[in-house]
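Lab meeting tomorrow. Look over both lines:
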Amino acid sequence: MDYDEENNSTITEYSIDPKPILFSILLFVEIASILCSLIILIYFFFHWKSMINKALQNHVIFLLIIVSLLYTTLDLPFTLNSQRIGYDYPQTVSFCRWWYWIDWTLLVNSLYLTAIASIQRHILIFHSHLLQINRIRLKLHYIPLIFSVIYPATFYLITIYFYPCEMPTYDYVQYCPYPCYCDNLILYTIDYMINTVLPVVVIIIANIILVCRVIHSMKKIRRNHFDIWKRQKKLTLQLLSISLLYIIGSGPVTVVSIIQMFFMPNIYDDIPDIYYVTFSIYFICTMQSFLSLFTLPELLNFIKKKLKQILSKETVTPVQTILPTR
């Protein structure tokens, strides 16, 4: 055996399987995400008037946290189980249909909510007076949010459950086959372009324009309008932190999918390692709760206050009085 053969055998022998690492990371993030989501939701419910009724910018955060909690409790456990045992379970038609429906619905929910928030943030920062009119607030704020929740669930309910086709036999070994409508290239392309590519592009463009507008407006604001500048900065940073998660998580997968659809149909066979790029999609909904926590200064101050109270009680020691001797 020459040196090259010995070196290749050594590399093969000590190659690392990334799936156990992915499983451990996802399991840790899932548990932490559930706890974080519950903390935020409980705080919202106990401070509903100040955090929801009087703060329109928190509505999308509230919905994203619900989506994140549903994903980590209803969807991600089956992904973790699949990573652990090496195949999807249970292997039934009804389960695979439901799993695709809940997985794709929640993912598109989060993408559309973030895209809508990216557009609405322009109104909240530069035209907030319009939202004081009930009719305009309903059209520009509530209806888009309701659409972002209902549309993905309805679309995938129809395409997955009611698309006319012969169901494939489920005598497979590993993973659930794609729904039947994915065999229709036109319908699948429309689905991917409208439900994935479009919201990602909207998020990128809307955030770039927002940053430019805020920087431009900061030059015009005088020192005596510091409160306006502070509010603009807070609302912009809140949106950017959430949007970057979706750009980083969905961007690489979207680019690879577009290349596969239009240029290299066998890209995953030609470049097997590119498959690991798709793992980033698992962290979009799970990381949402952590970013949302840091975009809520009221909740952070509440947590810090409670921690200080707990620590102060633990550090207080009883004072021992010494009686003078006669």
DSSP finds eleven helices and no strands in the chain. Residues 18 and 276 are 9 Å apart (CA to CA). Residues 1-13 have pLDDT under 50 and may be disordered. Residues 226-262 form the longest helix (37 residues).
